[in-house]
Write a structure and sequence with these properties.
Number of strands: 19
Number of domains: 2
CATH architecture of the largest domain: Alpha-Beta Complex
Strand content: over 45%
Helix content: under 10%
Length: 241
């Protein structure tokens, strides 16, 4: 019995050693870094821009036009300044966690970057903090399952992407399908459909390398065709009712 227990303990230890490590938190700037002024910038960089009320963006530069270190921007308008975006740059490219905010201070969007490209999980939120969408990017391309939720927090629908290829579906906050567009390597290529709230098709056509191509049709609420247009590489070449 003692030998069996020892073997089980050994196997359990091996399983723990072979588990995938928990990913490290994404780099992010310190909260309120702009209150420190130039002291918040990395060595051999200078502070650029200005925080409210003198300006609406603040960042550090290692050379003219090359951002390095923390970045912050604020909403402009008549109301009290509210943070709009907070993130980091490395050698002029975004990296780490970037967060964007609504003008009332509520978190709107979380994105992760590596060498300027989206890389890792991303989430968007409604103003009340309810999760709106979630998905993952890899090397700048959507990769994996993307989920959308209605304002009540219920799953509205999913899209499956593989290295930027698949049909991406957009959902309205109250749970109805807005568009379904096919992508290849992160570029709109293939069938595209726009829907009405009742689920009927409002418009349909094809994309070729991010440009409208071929016949595009608009339909009325009764399903009848109300407009046709033909495109060649994004340029409308023919149109009729």
């Amino acid at each position: 019995m003692g030998r069996v227990l020892a073997v089980l303990l050994l196997l359990s230890s091996c399983d723990r050693h072979h588990q995938a490590p928990t990913p490290a938190p994404a780099p992010r700037p310190p909260a309120g870094w702009w209150t420190l002024g130039a002291a918040a910038c990395p060595a051999e960089t200078v502070l650029r821009g200005a925080a409210p009320p003198s300006g609406t963006a603040l960042w550090c530069e290692s050379a003219p036009g090359t951002r390095e270190g923390p970045y912050a921007s604020w909403h402009s308008g008549d109301r009290a300044p509210a943070l709009e975006a907070l993130g980091l740059y490395r050698q002029g490219r975004r990296y780490g966690l970037w967060v964007r905010y609504y003008d009332d201070g509520a978190r709107r969007l979380e994105q992760r970057y590596d060498r300027g490209a989206l890389d890792g999980p991303q989430r968007s939120y409604y103003r009340d903090g309810t999760l709106a969408t979630e998905g993952r990017f890899r090397a700048g391309l959507p990769d994996g399952v993307f989920r959308a939720y209605d304002r009540g927090g219920h799953l509205a629908g999913e899209s499956q992407m593989r290295a930027g290829t698949g049909t991406m579906v957009e959902w309205a906050p109250d749970g109805w399908k807005v568009t379904a567009i096919h992508y290849v390597d992160g570029v709109r290529t293939g069938r595209a459909v726009r829907y009405r709230e009742d689920g009927s098709v409002a418009e349909e056509g094809q994309y070729l390398t991010d440009m409208k191509q071929g016949l595009w049709i608009e339909r009325g609420a009764d399903g009848q065709v109300v407009h046709r247009a033909r495109y060649e590489r994004g340029q409308r070449v023919e149109e009729r009712q």
